[in-house]
Amino acid sequence: MKKNISKKDININPNLNYDINLLRKLYKKMLLIRRFEEKAGQLYGMGQIGGFCHLYIGQEAVVVGIQSVQIEGDTVVTSYRDHGHMIACDMDSKGVMAELTGRIDGYSRGKGGSMHMFSREKGFFGGHGIVGAQVPIGAGLAFAHKYNSTNNISIAYFGDGAANQGQVYETYNIASLWKLPVIFVIENNEYGMGTSVKRASSGNNLAERGKGYGIKFEIVDGMDVLAVRDASERAAEHCRAGKGPFILEMKTYRYRGHSMSDPANYRTRSEVDQIKKNSDPIENLKQILLKSGVTEDELKLENNKIKETVNEAAIFAQESPEPSIDELFKDITIN
Amino acid sequence: MSVEILMPALSPSMEEGTLSKWLVKEGDQVVSGDLIAEIETDKATMEVEAVEDGKIGKLLVEEGDQAIKVNTPIAILLNENEELPNEVKQIIDEKKEKFVTSTFIVTSNDSSEKLKNITPLNYKNITVREALRDAMSEEMRLDNNVFIMGEEVAEYQGAYKVTQGLLDEFGDKRVIDTPITEHGFAGIGVGAAFANLKPIVEFMTFNFAMQAIDQIINSAAKTLYMSGGQMGCPIVFRGPNGAASRVGAQHSHCYASWYAHCPGLKVIAPWSSEDAKGLLKSAIRDPNPIIFLENEVLYGQSFDCPDDENFLIPIGKAKIEKVGSDVTIVAFSIMVGKALEAAKILKDNGIDAEVINLRTLRPLDNETILNSVKKTNRVVTCEEGFPFSGIGAEISAVISENVFDWLDAPVTRVTGKDVPMPYAANLEKLALPQVDDIVNACKKVCYKN
User: Fold this and answer.
1) Residues of A in contact with B194 (CB under 8 A)
2) Tens digits of per-residue pLDDT, B240-266?
3) Domain encompassing residue A133
4) Nearest-CA distance A22 → chain B (Å)
5) Which of B99, B119, B156, B349 lies 20 to 30 angstroms, CA to CA, from B6?
């Protein structure tokens, strides 16, 4: 358990009656995200990826748990720490990696980069570089779901840093007023860049700020993919039933710095190590899988397959050509 | 002693109004605070109270009288037992002649207009406000994905009455009042547009859109490019821009050059009812984010407008409002009217000015401007905004880059002064570009005094 989370705030489902194949799926996806991010970090170090690159390592349980309750047509929008969300949405690792390297086969034809990627086909609406700006956009997607009388929901992810942006509260107000089907997911990884939540945010839990707007919320152990899934199921059901928005505050942790260029001097090595040792979402699910009869060999095989997928993506991303010169003036407006 | 009740000014930009209903009749006793009439202004229908006690001696205007100038006597209040003095009776008829004035009608010279395959059959004299409303309601009838959101657009019927009647026709699913949270609702509009709906987002003024400029620029304008062409954002941001009248620096700013600066946006600034209707319809149909800069002072002005729901004006095309040979005046929005007035005065001075109504600021119709310069060899640009990095500065650069050798005089700018808008009436007038400024600038480039 992480140091800042008080037990009473957290909903843990002790019931482990999950379908073993579901657990396998969750595990594979989390592992794919982790290996993908490790590779991205490696390519950044090699100078193959430029600009800002924000890795999701440590937070995998959040997006994978939530994604597991999504249905066809649901939409996702998030911040610049977006690689994990794209992979969770089943976007192709190759296309994501090729965008990171700024190549023509990237999801944005090399013109968006790490922070600005999209896939309309997969319901992933970005990838937004301005802290908090994705939150009203997520409510706008929910507005469209409602306007079109669908059963779909919008999932709008943002961090503890964005949770202090005014537009988040403008959006809470409207979403609650108009009963928009949106889950606001606060990925509270304890630091907004180098500033701890304690130093940036008044009050106790960020989710409680929804109270004033009449929005239901839950505070969840975001390092436990099953707890995330359970809470998401409740939240999604609430939204699909037309009861308006729902806030999930995921208590999570990022292992790496804010971006590749962040030495993370604002926290101790032992703080990070403690969490890796005790709360790692992938390792913990692995233990459950092993106890449920899945063999070490099977998991090793899976790990190797994922490594291969990621290596292929890395090769693809380096071999894909840079965008042609005429791309410079393409897609500024639709003619 | 009888007292004249005058037509009140009920909004900063109100110059005239309609007496929609008398709530008293001749002979009624009133005390200060009693409601006496309903007056329809350029913004709303408002009730007017008596400011003194007395008896209504005479109603000087009839219900439904339009275009009654502010400060025109509308009724005579008598002391109790006082009769209407004879001399008052006599002057009533004279005054009645004066205060009901005809509305401002501009007939435009259409010679350069190339409206492909569209020949509007009938023209109707309507206000810019009505033209904007008609454009929205026609497009909303055609496409269920079009909806409008903003502050006071629905139940209040629009802060400037532009959305009057839309709630009744389309219901609250498509005509949506928002809280006063520009950043939030602009972002929600952008998200809805990403999901293929077609929002019209009304800002009560573009001054308030500053609260939302991040969503407009960073989300609406840039995402198509950043997504490799996947994420179109068919949204119209519209509302009044620039100076109204005596509303001070925070409510008078012209943002034309701010938005025109940004790739990914299209920026439109209509002048007449025809512009307003044809361009707003095109804007709603356009798949890109559009900034639609209206003008509060123009809302109540009437122009002949094609009465045809298929009437569209292409985005990116300027209109030559008046053909001339001596100097080109380039203007947009309210400055087009001032440029046409200047052209009339110039004609009396032997200068034949060509007046270009830009209509769209981005993409700018360079072709029309440059061709005109090649003909007249002299240019005066007009805008209400500040001079620094303004639309005139851009036009000047385009002219220098392309037709420098055709110029017989330096490109000259007529702009708002480089100061925050003052409140005092005399200073405000000085800060805003006037007809005389255009006349003088034109004389200067023609080397005539």
Assistant:
1) 125, 137, 140-141
2) 999 998 999 999 999 999 999 999 999
3) 19-314
4) 30
5) B156
